[in-house]
Structure formats: C-alpha cells, structure tokens
Amino acid sequence: MDWLQALGRRGLGVFERLGRASVLLFNIIGGLHTLVPRPALVTYQVFSVGVLSLVIIVVSGLFVGMVLGLQGYNTLVDFGAEESLGVVVALSLVRELGPVVTALLFAGRAGSALTAEIGLMKATEQLSAMEMMAVDPVRRVLAPRFLAGFVSMPLLAAIFSAVGVTGGYFVGVGLLGVDEGAYWSQMQDRVDLYDDIMNGVVKSLVFGAVATWIAVFEGYDAVPTSEGVSRATTRTVVQTALAVLALDFILTALMFGEY
Amino acid sequence: MANQDQQQPLVEIRNLSFSHGSRKIFDGVDIDIHAGGVTAIMGPSGTGKTTLLRLIGGQLRPQTGTILVDGEDVTRIRRGRLYQLRKRMGMLFQNGALLTDMSVFDNVAYPLREHTRLPESMVRDLVLMKLEAVGLRGARDLLPSQLSGGMARRVALARAIALDPMMILYDEPFTGQDPISMGVLVRLIRLLNDSIGLTSIVVSHDIAETAAIADYIYLLSGGKVVAQGTSAELERSDSAWAQQFLQGLADGPVPFHYPARDYAEDLLTPSSVAAAARG
Ligand SMILES: Nc1ncnc2c1ncn2[C@@H]1O[C@H](COP(=O)(O)OP(=O)(O)O)[C@@H](O)[C@H]1O
Ligand SMILES: [Mg+2]
After folding, report:
1. Mutation test residue for ligand 1: of B26, B50, B53, the one with most atoms within 8 Å of CB
2. Which has more pLDDT, A220 or B23?
3. Cα A216 versus chain centre, distance
4. What is the residue extent of each domain of chain A?
C-alpha cells in the first residue's frame, strides 16, 4: 500500500504546483497593463530573450532545412516528384519543425536563463526587497519577461522557417539540381496562408506562452538555494520539452485532423 | 526614554504565534516598538529574528496574534493598504539585497522612480543626498558586484531611506563586517535615527554593538521573549537568559546541544540499528 500512498502524494503535489502556477499566470496577466507606461522593461527583455536567441535559431534552422532538403529529395526522386521539394520543405517547417524546434531551443537558451535569473533573484532576496519597497515583483520582474517570451517566440519561429527554406534551397537547388523555378513556384502555390502559416503562428504563440510560463514559474517557485535554482532550471527545460511536444500533438490534431 | 509608557507604540505586537510548517517559531510574543527610538531584538541564530521582521513587514502572516504598525494591523490588512504602509518602512536585508542588474545610483533611485513622479533632476539630487549620508556618493556608478559587503549594506541603507520612511528594520547589520565598517554602521544607524527622526528596529546577535546603540532590548529564545529592558537593566538583571546571552556562555537556558538522544546510547548503537530504530 506504500506505493499507492506515494503515488497519491505525488499526484497531489503535481496538482498543487499546477494550482500555484495557474494563480501566478493569472496574476501575471492581470499585471500586464502596468507595463503600458514602462515599455522599456519589455523591450529590454525582448532583447535578452529574443535577440540573443537569434544565433542558435538561425544556425539550427539552416541545418534543419538542409537535412529536409536531402531527405525530401531522396524520397521524392523515387516518384519523380523532386520538383515538389520546395513544398515538402516549407510545409514541414511552417507547420511543425519551425514552431516545435524553436520552442525546444528556446527552452534551452532562454527559458533556462529566465528560471536561473529569477531563482537567483529570489535566493539573494532581491524579490523580497522589492516587495518591501512596495514593488510587486510579479508585475515588475515576471510580467515583462512573460510578455517578451510570448512576443518573441512566433518571430523566432518565423525566422527559423525562413532560414530553413533557404537551407533546403541550397541543398535541393544548389547541390542536387532541383529546378529553381519549380522549388519556389510550387511552394507559392501549395502553402496556404491560413491553413499552414497561420496555424504555425498559433502553435508558436501557444508554445511561447507555455514555455515562458513554465520558466518564470519555476524561477519564482524555486527553493532559494543554489541547489534549488539548479533543479528548477533543469525542470524548466524538461517540462517545457514535454509540454511542447504534447501540445503539438493536440494542436495538430485540432488543426489538421480533418484530412 | 522616560516617556516610553505614555505614548502609543509605533509597532505593537500582541500574542504573536507563528509556525513554519510544524516548526513553532513564535509562541505568544508581545513586543512594543516606540517611535523615535532604536529597539534591538536579540537572540541566538535560528530563533526567528528574520522571521519577525518579515512578519512586521507583512511578508508572512502569523497563525494568531496582531501586529499593529502605526495603528494598522498588518496581519489582516488588504494588499493595497499594505503596499502603502511599506512605502513608509525601509528594510535592510542581511546581505543588502541590491538589484544586481543596475548601478548603485539606480538602486537608490529605484524606489523614487517607482513611487514618485519627480523629475529626473530632482531624483538625482535626492539620490546624491542619500548616498552622501552613507558616505558613498563617489561610488554611484559602481555595480553591486563591485562593492564590498559593508559598502553594499550602506547602499542598501541609502535605498531604504530614499522615500524618507518612518521606520527602518535592520536585519543583522553587523554580521560579517570588519571592525571599521562595523563602527561606521553603528554610528550611521544611531545618527540616521536621531537626525531624521526615524524609528529603528535592529535585529542582531552582536551584543556589544547593539547594546551601544539600543534604547531598549528584547531577548528572544525558544519562541518567547525571555528578557527585556534597557542594556543597563539587562546587565543588572538576574535573568539567567540575559546573563547567558550577554556574557556569551556556551551553556545555560539556551542549551549548547541541539536536542538529541542520549550521547552514550548514540555512540553504542551501530548505525544500521539506529537507522532501523529511527525508521
Ligand atoms: N521557509 C521556511 N520554511 C521552514 N522553516 C524555515 C523557513 N524559513 C526559516 N525557517 C526556520 O525558522 C527558523 C527561524 O529562522 P530565521 O527567522 O531566519 O532565524 P534568525 O534570523 O533568527 O537566524 C530557523 O530555524 C529556520 O530553520
Ligand atoms: Mg536571520
């Protein structure tokens, strides 16, 4: 019976954390309006969350696009359909790999940094000091970071996809001899603004919200010691990865399920 | 302070009980903090001195009891009122707790920029005045990581008085200071208290320094106030607690040992048996 008890306790623990995280999200969203007179707080975070993730996004996007070019060509050429390479590369990126891989990279690059920063601010009593100065850290520290992540993710995903399409072009057209006109025109014909691109944007908005939510919650909820912060950082990366992959399945089923 | 009994205390703690989980930190504590004075709260490490400051600042809520700060009960107050009240309290954290991503100047300016709409030129003047008061006007462009522990605490003090509060709470201001910065801080606390009419609460276990500046001292141990009085009264008192604490005796009412089972029995029990017995 011990294991049943332990399972029950764990389950309760999960729900308790989920509850606290939801209350925090509620407070963050309720505090977003206080950022209106302080846009600098947000732009600074967009810089540190978004701009500093650019390099890893661009490099990864390029390689993923090139791999898609190779794999897609090898499959398509058997059917004599290598002209459609552009469509395959673009759809894979815009619908799936752009939002998902960007979110995974974001968790590793920006999410972990957010958690560590907030956790250390807690451990060094900076958050307490703000509270005692009558400044709400949820509004001043968490809300701008949350908003910055939410805004940055779709932009990063778009850049990832754009670079990936170019990578596929280099390999497909440059290396393997696919017709350049076909690569681009088929892509233009078959990639739909609403069905494909907008759905991809919706995905990355959801991933952006979830990834930053997890990151700021883990930092804010961290045990205020060096060990506690390091554990929280690990949890951010793992939980974001799991949440993004699970949500991706659900969103894909909802968006493309009728096919 | 001769008229201590006549006036209403600025902070009035009654029947305060507080537990962290199952661990009882306070058990029926009564404390009065009188306006205009320096009140010391002393006790061994881990008695809950920091916890007491957080209770007064409304960051923690007690299980029972009331804490009146300037007539308002912070244990029941609404959040908006609490934040208004906190603007009139400064808290000096044990390690300063400066915001590490901004300069000394911006740290001191932070409360002014958050809570007032003063023009930047006036913010600058005020910040320089506060930094001058703690002797660090020349350090305004340094980052917190470039400060020594004593300097960081003085910057935090300048920040704490930025909004001209009615009261400052000091959490172990002397711990880990070299003799010079210790002396500087001791004088600074007294000077600020008397020159701008503050009320100070100093939490500490450094007897000599604290006794030198405190008008009134509370000794805490085991969740209760075990002795109180002016430092002269405490020295003369026959309370075993006061004597142990003031003289720094290892053993007395505050035991040297953390509660444990019998020493001989502990040594004679093999660890596996002990583990089984505990489990
Ligand atoms: N968040 C917490 N959860 C559980 N126990 C705590 C917590 N914070 C402090 N304590 C315990 O409360 C006691 C009092 O802590 P504290 O107020 O920091 O003591 P002091 O400042 O007098 O050294 C300590 O024994 C500490 O272990
Ligand atoms: Mg303490």
Report:
1. B50
2. A220
3. 14
4. 2-256
Q: What is the pTM of this model?
A: 0.86
Q: What secondary structure, in 3-state letters, does chain A show?
A: CHHHHHHHHHHHHHHHHHHHHHHHHHHHHHHHHHHCCCHHHHHHHHHHHHHHHHHHHHHHHHHHHHHHHHHHHHHHHHCCCHHHHHHHHHHHHHHHHHHHHHHHHHHHHHHHHHHHHHHHHHHCCHHHHHHHCCCCHHHHHHHHHHHHHHHHHHHHHHHHHHHHHHHHHHHHHHHCCCCHHHHHHHHHHHCCHHHHHHHHHHHHHHHHHHHHHHHHHHHHHCCCCHHHHHHHHHHHHHHHHHHHHHHHHHHHHHHHCCC
ipTM of the complex: 0.82
* Nearest Cα residue to atom 16 of ligand 1: B48
Mean pLDDT score across all residues of chain B: 85
Of the listed ligands, the closest to the CA of B220 is 1
Give residue-wise pLDDT tens across range B63-84: 999 999 988 899 888 988 999 9
Residue carrying structure tokens 């004593």: B150
Ligand 1 pocket: which of B20, B22, B56 to mutate (most atoms within 8 A of CB): B20
Nearest CA of chain B to the CA of A124: how many Å? 6
Ligand 2 centre to CA of B93 (Å) is 9
Residues of chain A with pLDDT under 70: 258-259
CA distances from B59 to A129, A224, B170 (A): 10, 16, 15
- CA-B52 nearest atom, ligand 1: 17
With CA atoms as reference, report the closest residue to A149 among A30, A32, A256: A32
Q: What is the pLDDT of residue B255?
A: 67
> Is a pLDDT exceeding 80 seen at residue B274?
no
- Out of A124, A132, A136, whose CB is closest to B91? A132
pLDDT digit string, tens, across residues B117-153: 899 999 999 999 999 988 889 888 999 999 888 889 8
Contact B83 A133 (CB under 8 A): no
Smallest CA separation from ligand 1 atom 25, residue:
B46
Look at residue B275 in the predicted model and tell me its pLDDT: 60
Q: Residue A93: what pLDDT?
A: 93
pLDDT band at B4, cuts 50/70/90? Answer: very low
Tokens of A209: 């919200």
- The band of B273, judged by pLDDT with boundaries at 50, 70 and 90, is low
